[in-house]
Amino acid sequence: MKEKQGEGSFFQKIAAFIVDKRALFFLLYGFAIVFSFFSTNWVEVENDVTTYLQEDTETRQGLVAMNDNFTTYATAKIMVSNVTLDTAQQLADQLEKVEGVQILAFDDTPDHFRDASALYDINFSGEVDDQLCLDAMDQIRDILKGYDVSYDTPIGYDEIAELNEEMTTILLVAVVIIILVLTLTSRSYAEVPVLLLTFGTAAILNKGTDFLCGKISFISNSIAVVLQLALAIDYAIILCHRFSDEHETKSTRDACVDALAKAIPEISASSLTTISGLVALSFMKFTIGLDMSIVLIKSVLLSLLSVFTLMPGLLMLFSRLIDKTRHKKLLPNITALGKFAVATRYIMPPLFAVVLVGAAILSNQCPYCYSYTNLETAKMSQRQLDHAHIRDTFGENNMVALVMPSGNYPAEKAIVRELEDRPEVKGITALSGMEILDGHKLTDALNPREFSELVGLDYEVAQGLYSAYALEEDQYGELLSGLSRYEVPLFDMFLFLKEKIETHNILLEGEDKETLDDLFDQMESAQLQLQNDKYSRMVVFLDLPEESDETFDFLSWMRELLGRYYSDDYYVVGNSTSSRDLAASFLGDNLLISILSALFVILVLLFTFQSVGLPVLLIIVIQGSIWINFSFPTLMHQPLYFLGYLIVNAIQMGANIDYAIVISSHYQEIKKSVPHKQAIIQALNASFPTVFTSGSIMAAAGLLIGNLSANPVISVMGTCLGRGTIISIVLVLCILPAILVLGDSVIERTSFKFKTPPRRTQTETGVIRLKGHVRGYVSGVVDADFDGVLRGDLNASVASGPEADTKGEDDNA
User: Fold this and answer.
1) Using 50, 70 and 90 to split pLDDT, how confident is the model at 7?
2) Contacts of residue 145, Cβ cutoff 8 Å, sequence gap at least 6
3) Are 737 and 341 in contact (CB under 8 A)?
4) Which has the closest alpha carbon to 145: 84, 95, 74, 89?
5) CA dist., res. 599 & res. 619, Å (int)
6) Which pLDDT belongs to residue 759?
7) Residue 326: alpha-carbon gap to chain centroid
8) pLDDT at 755
9) How far apart, in whole angstroms, are the C-alpha atoms of residue 413 and residue 627?
10) Residue 531 DSSP symbol
11) Residue-wise burial string across 77-109, b where 16 or more C-beta atoms lie within 10 A, e elsewhere
12) What is the C-alpha separation between 406 and 412, in angstroms, rounded?
């Protein structure tokens, strides 16, 4: 007798190729992993979130102007506690002599000494990464050894290295948790290494291909691997369980082929909700959303690729061990929860509706913040603790830069005078405020005699210098009217004098040379930091928090002040302006992401379930979990960094919806054969392992990030994601079942069917190999998904057709 075998479906052909060519795929993945170990070092990481602001924002334009035109020297705030004023002054004298320290500000005013604590404001002679500054900080630490010291400086601080160290720890702990969870939910202990190898490979490939995205944000670089594991672990579990089911009646190879053929469309459909939520991020005006969207979507796609092309080979490789290490079910059924849902179907949904309204109101009152400088997290680095200690002792020191067209010294002096009269201003660094000799400011204009007396030059030499300056600046009228009243700003004249000394071999000796050399050093430093041919810069220190209505009002006043003296091309730049610009874009981004993520998910669910009512019910549950999640900051009076809300909102909608989909899918299938009240109980029991596995891993990943990372942005995202996932699990297990039972009639009335081509009724007799949906008479009526051998007469419509001809023995059943 012959068993009739056909060619199989499209997905079966693909699956057969992947399984049969597994050695080739192992080789390709080996090459890809080796390549990724090298290419990981090519990835560029952006630490500054303001880089992702829109180009038309004042902060972005001002930062570009500053970065292109000025050098920013390193600074440090160092507080020594529990010292007397005399001791503090002695330490100041020692610190001032350290090579690399350009300016040290310290006096006996409350700005620098209070409550037995001394605060030293230090400006260094180089940029943050210069070896001169690193050596200077080492000497300062040696001098202050033994004292109670708090350091607030970026010198010697490598944020990327600290983040990488934190994420390595988080990943190791996450892997341990994942192994425990997978062991609990697996059917065989040997499934666990297959899953880990699959996702370990996907994670390596994702890191190794980040360089293709250009420069990526520190957020994407840090959390992508952990989120990749949490977002995409379902895909491998689905294929693993499919293989286990098929292997009960088939050989290893056939089971793997059939499992993969069935899993490809199922997993692809499941991934669409996650991808759609991530796609919504790319529409943010704040383009860090696009950055995260690209990196995370790439991670999901590479996870799919690994599951489809690497995991089948691993299942074949580990199949014997999988068979040997099978174990009984470790997770209990949750029948009681299903019965509770049925019994409370008239209570829980109305109660949830009340909670939903309250959560929506509270989440809309969430105290968002747009600067993370002063955010407190579960874990804080020593630098963060020192910054907080200095802030609590000496108050706020909010730095804002004013950038304006250069050359208008009277306007700059007037601006400085008005700023100095404001109580909000603690200090100003500007050319027009810098004293040099005998109380003169750099922008003061002197005539030749005054200049000669100030610097010790002969009057005739000073006259010659002024004449040469007038000729070079094409100011011939000053020469004709006489030089005695010709006034030139000190800054310009010193730069001109320096140029002439260097190019015309003018020789100075003794004290004159030393005095001028010191002045020239000050000029060079001031020029690099505060002025060039295009712009001047002032640095203003405010006694205001980085974020408050008072601060934003003062920023508006400063902008109006600049507008009185300049028509355009001026900027107010700082953490406070960045917060103001981010706040302005947040409202639009928040609304856009909420609408798009929900819309994309609804479209996916609409075609998945072929119902209008069911997707709406699922979205309501997950949106409820989002609102409840972000009610916590309101209730706890805890500021929430806005980016955590935007990103977690999209991820929660795109990923947590899968838990609701799993339960709904089982419910829709089971209720075809049993009453809907009984169906929801069975659906919960069937869905619980999947929801528990995916949900616990996602929640654990989020809470680990939230509690083990000192970076405020990363920590806030992790905390919100972990908390939101737990809330989603509770709602889909406790509230969604009651909603499905109560709303069953709505689901049925809003269902629809897509038109499909009519099936051809076929009549066959003999030994027939069938694989597909069969409806008709087979020695009795059959309406089922059939995969096996039929002996007898066939008179039925077959979705995929009999996979053989009719030759064989006639054996009527």
Assistant:
1) very low
2) none
3) yes
4) 95
5) 9
6) 54
7) 40
8) 60
9) 52
10) B
11) bbbbbebeeeebbebbeebeebebbbebebeee
12) 9
Spell out the SS3 assignment of 516-527: HHHHHHHHHHHH
Q: What angle do CA 465, 469, 471 make, to 5 degrees?
A: 120
pLDDT band at 533 (very low <50, low <70, confident <90, very high): confident
- According to DSSP, the β-strands at 761-777 and 781-798 are antiparallel
pLDDT category, 462, cuts 50, 70, 90?
confident
Where is mean pLDDT largest: 177-191, 309-323, 745-759? 309-323
* Contact assessment for residue 507 and residue 391, using Cβ atoms and an 8 Å cutoff: no
The CA dihedral of 665, 666, 669, 674, to the nearest 10 degrees, is -140
Name the maximum alpha-carbon separation found in the chain.
128
Q: What's CA 607's distance to the chain center, in Å?
A: 31
Tokens matching residue 84: 């007397």
In this structure, what token pair is assigned to residue 205? 């490939």
Beta strands in 575-689 (DSSP E): 640-641
Whether 654 contacts 603, CB under 8 Å? no
Q: Are β-strands 215-217 and 44-46 bridged in parallel, bridged antiparallel, or unpaired?
A: parallel
Rounded CA Rg of the chain: 36
Q: How far apart are CA 403 and CA 97, in angstroms?
A: 32
Q: Letter for the amino acid at 156?
A: G
pLDDT at residue 811, as a whole number: 38
Strands, DSSP E only, in 421-542? 425-429, 445-446, 488-489, 535-542
pLDDT given at position 803: 40
Q: In DSSP terms, which residues pair with 567 in a beta bridge?
A: none
Both structure tokens of 186: 């697996």
User: Are 249 and 318 in contact, with CB atoms under 8 Å apart?
Assistant: no
- Mark out the alpha helices in 127-251 (DSSP H runs): 131-143, 159-185, 191-208, 218-247
CA 468/CA 503 separation, integer angstroms:
14
Looking at the chain, how many residues does it have?
813
| pLDDT > 70? residue 74 | yes
- Asked if 409 and 442 touch (Cβ cutoff 8 Å), the reply is no
Among positive and negative, which fits the CA dihedral 653, 655, 659, 661?
positive
| pLDDT score for 141 | 93
Residue 809 has pLDDT above 50, yes or no: no
How many angstroms separate the CA atoms of 530 and 581, rounded?
24
Helices (H), 652-755: 657-670, 676-708, 712-734, 736-742, 744-749
Q: How far is CA 228 from CA 26, 235, 281, 521, in A?
A: 22, 11, 16, 53
| pLDDT tops 80 at residue 91 | yes
User: Can you read off the two tokens belonging to residue 736?
Assistant: 């969604």
pTM above the 0.85 mark? Answer: no
**8 Å CB contact between 312 and 693:** no
The whole-angstrom separation of Cα 695 and Cα 697 is 5
Reported as a pLDDT band with limits 50, 70 and 90, residue 517 is: low
pLDDT tens digits, residue range 175-234? 888 888 888 888 888 888 998 899 889 989 998 898 888 888 888 888 788 778 777 777
The backbone torsions φ and ψ at residue 466, rounded to the nearest 5 degrees and listed phi first, read -65, -35
- Quick one: pLDDT at residue 801? 41
Distance CA 207, CA 173 (A): 19
What is residue 506's predicted lDDT score, i.e. its pLDDT?
58
Residue 779 Ramachandran class (φ > 0 left, ψ -120 to 50 alpha, else beta) = left
- CB contact at 8 A, 692 and 331: yes
Chain Cα centroid distance, residue 58: 23
Helix (H, G, I), strand (E, B) or coil at 537: strand
A 10 A CB-CB count for 203 gives 22
Sorting pLDDT into bands at 50, 70 and 90, what band is 765?
Answer: low
